[in-house]
């Protein structure tokens, strides 16, 4: 079995080969810290956490670096709007995001570089690009000369004319070419700035990731990751900067996750259709979010809705059910050996699925298969080493997906505990309605509503949901 990964650069699935045997250098673009992170950010972090965990499970030593963009137009604008100090605001949201990462059971990175700590390195790289004629300065700003880079556009496969339409920025008059992008932005009145050979200013967005990769991982890395909304211009420009500087291929595999969608559109602050990580975790567990994301494929969009998350909550509970203790004391026999067989085939199937460009939904289906086998073995009174081994395997493979399988507290746990009783009340009410006992049926409905359980009568029967507390 070999691991195959889809590489955006070649648009193909390729066998995974590292630059250095047994070692993976991995860089993932992190957030711009100017607002509460939403579960779309969480999806990217969770996807690359899963990839990292699987690589480690497969025996690689992984060096994982992810950055914080802590100075940027968005931060400056938000700070001006709210009258805050931009650095304090960025620090606040950085700390908060780090807490979220741990709440979401995401393994800590080896390094979390921040733009504001890399300014000296960034200036040096821009100077080097200028010396090699890849960069030029105009009125205190510095731009990358796209025309000088022959293979510009190879990642996004955009023609330069299309690229121009995507990059026209006000206040960048004097560029040689509309497609050129800022490496250094001359300071405007009232903006945070650093001294540089071109006067006071701050770095452009794209240069920071090139420099952080170079500084923390070296000239060439194995995996560069991020959301597929970053392919152009961000990652295209990273490639242009890094490869023009070093003359070497920058990242071996470009890996991009799909977007989390709410009501059919990408979750984003500008559209306003977002669920913050805070509000998500008040209601649901990190495991449920992982199961939702891993039920699809990481490169495809994931649709977030009350229905899809409730389904994920139930699936998560089903996985957890596999860890309930045995009830009997039969250690051997037909049931025990068939449990052993399923344990082995589930492990094999799980790895095969993950080797196929991290096919997590197929991997999950092998975990469900194992849970079913454990449950029927338990019902048959099986305990002992095979039962133990099956549960250990479930725990281990779930752990590769970052699932803790611990009992959720809070509303998710409450809903799961209450579900059989709500179902019972709903069917009692249905029976009352059939006997035209309307007053009593309404009493049940109102009583449930008082506990935030909303009923809906449809031609196919009555459904219920927990009233949205967002
Ligand atoms: Zn980046
Ligand atoms: Zn190039």
Write the layout of secondary structure elements.
Elements: E1 4-7, E2 12-15, E3 23-28, H1 39-57, E4 61-66, H2 73-82, H3 86-103, H4 119-131, E5 135-138, E6 141-144, H5 160-167, E7 181-186, E8 201-203, H6 205-217, E9 221-227, H7 231-246, E10 251-257, E11 260-262, E12 265-266, H8 277-283, H9 286-294, E13 302-304, H10 306-321, H11 334-355, H12 360-379, H13 385-400, H14 410-434, H15 438-450, E14 453-458, E15 461-466
Parallel strand pairs: 3-4, 3-9, 9-10, 11-13
Antiparallel strand pairs: 1-2, 5-6, 6-7, 7-8, 11-12, 14-15
Helix pairs in contact: 4-6, 6-7, 9-10, 11-12, 11-13, 12-13, 14-15
Structure description:
The structure is a single chain. With 470 residues, the protein is an alpha/beta fold. It has three domains: 4-266, Rossmann fold (3-Layer(aba) Sandwich), CATH 3.40.50; 319-400, Four Helix Bundle (Hemerythrin (Met), subunit A); 410-466, no CATH class. Helices cover 48% and strands 15% of the residues. It has helices spanning 39-57, 73-82, 86-103, 119-131, 160-167, 205-217, 231-246, 277-283, 286-294, 306-321, 334-355, 360-379, 385-400, 410-434, 438-450, and strands at residues 4-7, 12-15, 23-28, 61-66, 135-138, 141-144, 181-186, 201-203, 221-227, 251-257, 260-262, 265-266, 302-304, 453-458, 461-466. The strands form five sheets. It has a four-stranded parallel beta sheet, with helices on both faces. One zinc ion binds next to loops.
């Amino acid at each position: 079995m070999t691991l195959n990964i889809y590489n955006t650069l070649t648009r193909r699935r390729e066998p995974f080969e590292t630059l250095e045997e047994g070692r993976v250098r991995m860089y993932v673009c992190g957030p711009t810290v100017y607002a509460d992170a939403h579960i779309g950010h969480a999806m990217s972090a969770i996807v690359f956490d899963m990839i990292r965990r699987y690589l480690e499970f497969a025996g690689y030593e992984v060096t994982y670096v992810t950055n914080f963009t802590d100075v940027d137009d968005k931060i400056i604008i938000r700070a001006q709007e709210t009258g805050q100090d931009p650095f304090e605001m960025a620090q606040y949201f950085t700390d908060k995001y780090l807490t979220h990462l741990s709440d979401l059971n995401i393994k800590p990175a080896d390094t979390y570089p921040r733009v504001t700590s890399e300014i000296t390195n960034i200036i040096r790289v821009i100077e080097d690009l200028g010396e090699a004629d890849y960069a030029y300065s105009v009125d205190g700003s510095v731009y990358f000369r796209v025309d000088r880079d022959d293979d510009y556009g190879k990642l996004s496969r955009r023609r330069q004319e299309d690229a121009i339409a995507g990059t026209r920025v006000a206040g960048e008059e004097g560029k040689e070419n509309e497609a050129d992008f800022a490496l250094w932005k001359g300071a405007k009145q009232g903006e945070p700035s650093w001294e540089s050979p071109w006067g006071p200013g701050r770095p452009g967005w794209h240069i920071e990731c090139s420099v952080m990769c170079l500084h923390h991982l070296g000239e060439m890395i194995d995996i560069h990751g991020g959301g597929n909304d970053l392919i152009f211009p961000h990652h295209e420009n990273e490639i242009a900067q890094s490869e023009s500087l070093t003359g070497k291929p920058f990242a071996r595999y470009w890996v991009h996750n799909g977007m989390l969608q709410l009501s059919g559109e990408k979750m984003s602050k500008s559209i306003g259709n977002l669920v913050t990580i805070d509000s998500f975790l008040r209601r649901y567990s990190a495991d449920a979010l992982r199961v939702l994301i891993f039920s699809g494929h990481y490169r495809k969009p994931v649709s977030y809705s009350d229905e899809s998350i409730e389904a994920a909550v139930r699936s998560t509970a089903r996985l957890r059910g596999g860890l309930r203790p045995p009830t009997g004391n039969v250690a051997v026999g037909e049931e025990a050996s068939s449990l052993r067989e399923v344990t082995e085939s589930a492990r094999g199937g799980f790895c095969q699925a993950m080797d196929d460009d991290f096919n997590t939904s197929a991997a999950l289906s092998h975990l469900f298969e194992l849970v079913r086998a454990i449950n029927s073995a338990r019902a048959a009174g099986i305990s002992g080493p095979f039962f133990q081994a099956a549960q250990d395997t479930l725990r281990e493979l779930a752990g590769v997906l970052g699932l803790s399988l611990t009992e959720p507290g809070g509303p998710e746990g409450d809903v799961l505990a209450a579900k059989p009783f709500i179902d019972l009340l709903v069917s009692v009410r249905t029976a009352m309605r059939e006997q035209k006992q309307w007053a009593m049926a309404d009493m049940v409905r109102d009583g449930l509503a008082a506990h935030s359980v909303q009923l809906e009568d449809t031609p196919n029967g009555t459904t219920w949901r927990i009233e949205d507390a967002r």
